[in-house]
Input
Amino acid sequence: MTTTKPWYLSRTIWASFVTVLIGAGGLAGLPVEGIDGSSLTDTLLQGVTAFCGLLSIFGRLWAKERIG
Output
């Protein structure tokens, strides 16, 4: 990896950004009407967080350019 690219083209940065947004949504409570909000929110947050974590790892492994 000798070339660089802008930060906004990094899959790792975007996956991490989504992870932060999902975490913030969990703290905010993400209201869901008519459904057990607590269980649904917990399940969705866990799934999306796991997916974004994997995307971050594999995004960095597949990267061909450095962030600069």
